[in-house]
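Encode chain A's predicted structure.
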Amino acid sequence: MGDACHHHHHDGPPSADSVASALAAADARLTGEGERMTAARMRVLELLLAAGEPVKAYDLIARFGEDGQPAKPPTVYRALEFLERKGLAHRIASISAYVACSSGAVDHSAAFLICDCCGATEEIPAAIAEGLNRAAADVGYVIERTTIEAHGRCPACRTAA
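Encoded structure for chain A:
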């Protein structure tokens, strides 16, 4: 892995308008389900959406306060747990980070492609999860959440190498 790894740029963070419309859609969906989108949940989701890439919990804690004041860790972790349970965010265990869900679908399995070179992460449909769900059902299990993580190199890092 040479220096070529870090010299390209991906799309970058989403626009303020797209963040605002995603927040409004999430708020409307949760309100429709009888859930409360508290200020802390809204702020954590806003930070994830604005980042446009996976973010570590301690970075969310540090960026939480509009006035530059960090949040209390339990506030952020509770918000993340809620957002994950509601399908608005995913935890990517292998890199200990969280990312806003790109599909917004409540009940779906996520698959992530993670570039070991530049860290770019892309959410793709997890077609493999259907077979996993059937296999689990055959032995009496019900899978509630599936997150598949695949590590490799993105097209830009492959080209640069």
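The beta strands are 89-92, 97-100, 110-115, 121-125, 147-152.
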